[in-house]
Design goal:
By secondary structure, the protein is of the alpha/beta class. The strands form seven sheets. Strands 1, 3, 4, 7, 12, 22, 23, 24, 25 and 26 form a ten-stranded parallel beta sheet that branches.
């Protein structure tokens, strides 16, 4: 048989293979080029400048300001451009960084008393048209990318309308005891505005301010409007609690929000949707609850240890949702420290001791590091009632050092005396710490702590988390109906720190760190979170390819080389913009220029601010940008 026919039959196949190979090669080449271009996309450094209130007609009436600000066609543009030129050129020499700015627009400061305005319960207020014009002229006058920060959170900006709005209980977050009163934070007023509803006056004023600002910006020339590289929505949006300044929520006195009538009713409706209107399904999910209708279900609000309960599902404390923090600090002489957690003899978890603990560094400078904190959240909801044993071991080279034992009582609904649970496995060989050079401490839990799991508490926290997302969605939808719809929008939320003192249930903000609507992740990073593996591990778990660092401060001095490595790492992980507070070396903080000048931001990068290494960080940014010896001429 001749081989010719077979040879001829193979030619189309070979040609097809070659064509496929060429197509695949071209696709891979294009993909590689795309990756290369993405890797080369410059990171926008967008410092948020302070001291601009009077330039933007947002400060006290009659307060002095530069003539360039208050002239008929004045704006904050000259001051911004001078501050940025002092920091560096528009683009770094290697093309990896662009220098733009964040323009903070405090929404409530846009309002001023006005006799002709429509009456409202909080008084007659109108949007300051001159402020809108100055904001627009500022963006037009600075030929750089700008992040527009629509700021309106619980942190006061000394706006006159704030005190008027705070008189209305509909605007305030509510605990089981009633509306939270105004508080203080770092010497500033703090207003615990409600985020549980969108039909109250504080929300309507925010809407009014955003619409007015969008209308003003939509009148700018398209080229100027195109400079808006992103919009930060409101700022830190989360639930509040009493004594917010005390910390991140740790403590035995567990009081949260929001228990307003609107929030309670919303919780009942949410449960009805979740359980398809079947109250029996909810009762079964709760383990035998007696509710006759969803209207009968009230959110948990009483601590079983201190308050009488009508039924078990009223119980609420910091662990009622079923997670118990096991935490402390550890340092191994042999290298990076890892802590093993054993439950009733069985291995439960292995966690790194790498979170920043400045308190330990201050007390034990001999350790040479503050990265010694560790934490594991033990899920106890499915554990049988009884007394359980937790053993903690520090890995020190090939050895295990026994750090200590804690007993935890998982209580039943009748509060029966807990019986010791049997060991399910033998612990591996462990040694005492003596002479090893290791150091450690167990912060939580206390030995023989009692925990009570209430499944309704887990549902309550899930509903509160949805309230945070819903509030941000409301303003995302508002902007979607303006000419700014195409501008990337992002949150400006707190990073859910994995620390001993962090209690995320008080904030209920973690659901808002996932994409929703057209909103991307914007996150505030301080301390170790700016550069540590813990943040990048969390980012990988959250599966978000793009994000913005909306506040950045390492909390210690860094050289230009160190800072550049941190910035490049964020760029490699998908950061598009990175913002930090900046106080320009301007006369904005002279005596008599208002409250904003009297108490400058302690976290601002500033050559005159030694707090937290901020002066060194200012110089490090200059080094990263390759600041020339003489500032560039203004355009």
């Amino acid at each position: 048989m001749s081989a010719t026919p077979a040879f001829r039959n193979d030619r189309p196949i070979n040609a097809l293979c070659l064509a496929l190979a060429a197509a695949i090669f071209a696709a891979l080449a294009a993909f590689s080029a795309w990756l290369w271009q993405a890797g080369r996309a410059p990171l926008l450094l967008a410092p948020a400048l302070g001291g601009l209130h009077n330039c933007l007609a947002l400060g006290p009436r009659g307060a002095p300001a530069d003539a360039a600000c208050t002239a008929p066609d004045g704006s904050a543009a000259p001051r911004i451009e001078r501050a940025l030129q002092a920091l560096g050129p528009r683009e770094s020499a290697d093309g990896r960084f662009l220098l733009g700015y964040t323009l903070v627009v405090p929404l409530l400061n846009l309002f001023e008393p006005h006799a002709q305005a429509a009456p409202a319960p909080e008084g007659r207020w109108a949007v300051n048209e001159e402020a809108l014009r100055r904001i627009a002229r500022t963006i037009e006058g600075v030929p750089r990318p700008v992040v527009l920060y629509l700021f309106s959170t619980h942190f006061s900006e000394d706006a006159p309308i704030e005190a008027a709005l705070a008189q209305n209980p509909d605007n305030m977050a509510v605990t089981p005891a009633g509306p939270l009163p105004p508080d203080r934070y770092m010497g500033w007023p703090l207003y615990p505005w409600s985020i549980a509803r969108t039909d109250n006056p504080i929300t309507r004023r925010r809407e009014q301010a955003i619409r007015a600002l969008a209308d003003a910006l939509c009148q700018m020339p398209p080229a100027a409007r195109a400079r808006i590289a992103g919009i930060n929505l409101l700022g830190e949006v989360h639930h509040l609690y009493p004594d917010f300044e005390a910390g991140m929520g740790a403590g035995s006195d567990y009081v949260i929000t929001d228990y307003s009538a609107a929030s309670r009713q919303g919780f009942s409706r949410w449960l009805a949707r979740r359980f398809a209107g079947d109250i029996g399904a909810l009762n079964a999910w709760l383990g035998g609850a007696p509710f006759a209708s969803f209207d009968d279900v009230q959110p948990p609000s009483r601590d079983i240890r201190r308050q009488p309960l009508a039924h078990y599902w009223q119980h609420l404390d910091a662990t009622a949702h079923g997670l118990l923090p096991v935490s402390g600090w550890a340092h191994a002489a042999s290298g990076p420290a890892w802590v093993r957690v054993y439950l009733n003899g069985r291995f439960a978890a292995r966690v790194p001791a790498r979170f920043m603990r400045q308190d330990v560094a201050a007390a034990r400078p001999d350790l040479g590091t503050a990265q010694v904190g560790w934490r594991y959240d033990l899920p106890f909801a499915r554990l049988p009632a009884g007394l359980h044993r937790i053993d903690l071991a520090l890995e020190d080279g090939p050895r295990l050092i026994h750090m200590g034992t804690r007993h935890v009582a998982v209580m039943d609904r009748q509060q029966s005396t807990p019986r010791p649970q049997p060991m399910q496995a033998a612990l591996p060989p462990m040694q005492p710490a003596g002479g090893s050079g290791a150091a450690y401490w167990i912060d939580t839990p206390q030995d023989h702590a009692a925990v009570f799991y209430n499944p309704l508490a887990a549902l309550w926290h899930a509903w509160r988390a949805e309230q945070v997302v819903a509030y941000l969605r409301h303003f995302d939808a508002l902007l979607e109906r303006t000419c700014l719809a195409g501008v990337p929008r992002r949150t400006q939320q707190i990073y859910p720190a994995e620390k001993a003192g962090w209690d995320g249930t008080r904030f209920a903000s973690e659901a808002s760190l996932k994409p929703f609507g057209h909103v991307q992740l914007g996150i505030n990073l301080y301390g170790e979170a700016t550069q540590d593996d813990s943040f990048f591990d969390w980012l990988a778990r959250s599966r978000q390819g793009r994000y913005s660092v909306t506040e950045f401060h390492p909390m210690h001095a860094m050289s230009a080389a160190e800072l550049r490595r941190v910035l490049l790492r964020h760029q490699a992980h998908g950061a598009q913009t990175l913002s930090f507070f900046l106080h320009p070396p301007e006369p904005a903080r002279q005596a008599g220029q208002g409250a904003q000048a009297a108490q400058p931001n302690p976290f601002a990068f500033d050559p005159a601010n030694p707090l937290h290494g901020s002066d060194a960080l200012y110089r490090a940014v200059q080094g990263v940008m390759g600041k020339p010896d003489r500032p560039q001429n203004m355009p």
